[in-house]
Specification:
135 residues
């Protein structure tokens, strides 16, 4: 792992500590825990100018289930709060001005992933899986 990947992984694990060590987060599904932790890692990394989308988007998509847009919208408040807590504690320069990217950007990324998966499925002559529809 390169240094940036190690830092992003550390942020992911810190998010687990903030969000999942105690109730109510301790009782949510593993899928949702992974969506939340990786989403926090993406937001914090992006705020510091670290590209994480190449890893974070497929990771979140893999854990988000049949409806990634729904998974992202259901976790956005907890993700935003945890990302804000980490950003506020960070002594590093925050390139985004401390603004946490909104759900619209995450949904656009999910749509992009869906569209790419659909194109790949069509090229391979495979019907896209159910649940790939997104608002």
């Amino acid at each position: 792992m390169d240094d940036a990947a190690m830092v992003k992984t550390m942020i992911h694990e810190a998010a687990h500590v903030l969000l999942h060590e105690k109730p109510p987060g301790a009782f949510i599904s593993r899928d949702r825990k992974e969506v939340e932790a990786e989403s926090v890692a993406f937001v914090v990394a992006a705020a510091h100018g670290m590209p994480a989308d190449g890893y974070s988007f497929p990771y979140v998509a893999a854990w988000a289930g049949d409806d990634p847009a729904k998974a992202i919208s259901q976790t956005q408040a907890r993700v935003s709060a945890a990302a804000k807590a980490i950003l506020e504690a960070s002594p590093a320069l925050i390139l985004s001005g401390g603004r946490v990217p909104g759900v619209d950007q995450a949904l656009e990324a999910a749509r992009s992933l869906r569209d790419g998966a659909t194109r790949n499925a069509e090229r391979m002559g495979v019907a896209p899986s159910a649940g790939m529809e997104m608002a």
